[in-house]
Amino acid sequence: MPHLHRLLTWCLPWQHSLWPSHWPWARADAAHAQAAADQAGLLEELELLQLAQALQQQAQRQGGYAGEVFDLMIAIADLLESSHGWDPEQSDAWLERMGVWDWED
Predict the structure, then answer these.
(1) For the whole model, what pTM was predicted?
(2) Is 78 in contact with 95 (CB distance < 8 Å)?
């Protein structure tokens, strides 16, 4: 990082006094942006899990995961794998705990 600072100071000597004061803010902004993105991802995952729980309750009332409800549970598991970093074994175990495989024909 010191080399970058020297290079930027050499390239932009008239703004030398501005760079050091802006770096802490840039780091704080980047950290805040990352935290906001992480939080958004966790909220999306929570919404998927809440939807799955509602589908599970519907399946229990109707006597099983049929048609679209079954397809939605599989789609949720696929999204958890592709967008939220779930391992396929983890999502398969989750589907089993949710009772999806118990109703499978």
Answers:
(1) 0.67
(2) no
DSSP label at 1?
-
Among residues 76, 84, 75, which one has the least CA distance to residue 41?
84
pLDDT 10s digits, 48-74: 999 999 999 999 999 999 889 999 999
Length of the chain: 105
Structure confidence by residue, pLDDT tens digits, 8-55: 555 555 554 555 555 666 777 888 888 888 888 889 999 999 999 999
**Would you list the DSSP string of 31-90?**
HHHHHHHHHHHHHHHHHHHHHHHHHHHHHHHHTS--THHHHHHHHHHHHHHHHH---HHH
